[in-house]
Amino acid sequence: MARDSTLRFAAQTDEVTSLLRIVNLVRTGEATTRPEIGRITGLGRGVVTQRVDQAIDMGFLADGDFGPSSGGRAPRTLHFRADQGRIIVCALGAVHIHVGVAALDGDVIAEVHRSWDISRGPADTLDVVMSMIDEVLERTGDAPVWAVSVGVPGPVDFETGRPVAPPIMPGWNGFDIRRRFEQRFGAPVWVDNDVNLLALGERAERNRHHADLIYIKIGTGIGAGLLSRGRIHRGANGSAGDIGHVRVPDADAPCRCGKIGCLEAVAGGWALVREAQARIDAGEASRLTPDELTTESIALAAEDGDALAIALLQASAKVVGGSIATLVNVFNPGVIVIGGAVASAGELYLAEVRQRVYELSLPLATRDLEILQSVNDRNAPLRGGAELAREQLFEVTFARWFADGRPTSERVSTPA
Fold first, then answer.
1. What is the overall mean pLDDT for the chain?
2. Mean of the pLDDT values across residues 127-146?
3. What is the Cα–Cα distance from 409 to 407, expressed in whole angstroms?
4. What residues make up the domain containing 281?
């Protein structure tokens, strides 16, 4: 009797495993017909037919058009039902909120953006976020919410989804961001550093799913998202890539984190605004005006040839390039993508970064290295947030919830 129970359990486990694999093969486009599924999995035609029918009945797959014939009867294609659910993505920045809704294939189908100061705290911020979510959901039909991704501009403990001593987010330390979303939508919620979402967005945009890639965001602050073989490297506690608070040699500028000489205190956007203000006050000629000083205005002025703005950006790029060179020697990426408001000055900034990286990095580490500017698409963090949710849903937690037909926070979210 015990042996029979063991055999039944083993058979059920094999069935579940093969069913999950088939859904993911179709979802990723690796196999789009029943014969292709059989060739890749080694399953017999009858078993493939049974599993595909199960996946169709559960709402994960659907039949499509007939594919090309290889000599016999043309096979019917299969497609993943990306319309069955929605992914909500909330990208919180230092001075803005960006909210979008994506289908299960990662396609962003609606979005809204507004200016906002993250230092106003979690209660007011999440009130605004919820109203923005209502706005975009009204434009995307009545499909259920399957997941929520939230990006924030500070260190996050990925296991708990709570910010940890974020320098530019007063009142957010240890705050349970997940709880309000889970209460509202009953869906799993993932919270991550905003630059990790940007790295995932670049992975999707450039189709570099197996890349060793570093995304460097140089905006108000500075941070790095590290992709190792296409996967985010967060480190033991989620702080990997937080280069904005690495000490710059001989620097003594006070940082918002409370330390002295941090990279972002010397070369970040708020540091450039501070330096521009001081030099204008000292009488240095510039098109920049004190009442309109922002990271973006400095980048635009540099593109227009303003000498002060150019000098500030080149100084920033030189210091940032030195820190990136350390990452290159340690991490050995194949691609570095530079993004953020400061880096929007384009080749003016990138040229200085490249020169510094090649000066200070090992020849082997830079032999095949590409240093590129971000595509600078406003929807990049939304795409990245959708990538994060899809990865967690279909590659990490799928087996926990697939029998229910849709994920819930009780079955999926990592315990706090």
1. 91
2. 95
3. 7
4. 207-373
